[in-house]
Specification:
Order of helices and strands: EEEEEHEHEE
Largest sheet: 6 strands, mixed
Strand content: 25-35%
Family: Belongs to the RutC family.
GO molecular function: hydrolase activity
Number of helices: 2
EC number: 3.5.-.-
Mean pLDDT: 95
Low-confidence stretches: none
Radius of gyration: 14 Å
Pfam families: Ribonuc_L-PSP (PF01042)
Number of strands: 8
Organism: Vreelandella lionensis
Structural class: alpha+beta
Length: about 130
């Protein structure tokens, strides 16, 4: 097992690693709409927050040698299910079909006042030539 800290990703405000690799799977900590360059929360619309969350996940996926193509499962947490369709539209735009498995959970609050958080499990394919 390898616990991973990603320098390019937003820095954790709590005690956790960005991801944990076990064999050819990576378990990615829930990403918030935090801007990596400033480490400040983007508290815009649900659309803006979802894009930032997915961009943060892309950073972690890339650093570990994976991509959205190899996501096996994700969980989406949102503070207002009235924005379910809006979040789904942005989320789906990062994937090609067929889509990974997913759970969406309505919550009463998220850290830092965010409205969207997403965590993932992804496969890390073998490197070409390996």
């Amino acid at each position: 097992m390898e616990k991973l800290f990603i320098d390019r990703a937003p820095q954790p405000i709590a005690p956790f690693s960005h991801a944990c690799r076990v064999g050819d799977l990576v378990f990615i900590t829930g990403q918030m709409p935090t801007v990596p360059e400033t480490n400040e929360m983007l508290l815009g619309t649900f659309t803006e927050q979802t894009h930032r969350v997915m961009q943060n996940l892309a950073i972690v996926l890339e650093e570990v040698g994976s991509s959205f193509e190899y996501v096996v499962q994700s969980r989406v947490f949102i503070t207002n299910m009235g924005h379910f369709d809006e979040v789904n539209q942005v989320y789906a735009s990062y994937f090609q079909k067929p889509l990974p498995t997913r759970t969406c959970i309505g919550v009463t609050g998220l850290a830092g006042g965010a409205d969207v958080e997403v965590d993932m499990i992804a496969w890390i394919p073998p490197k070409e030539g390996a």
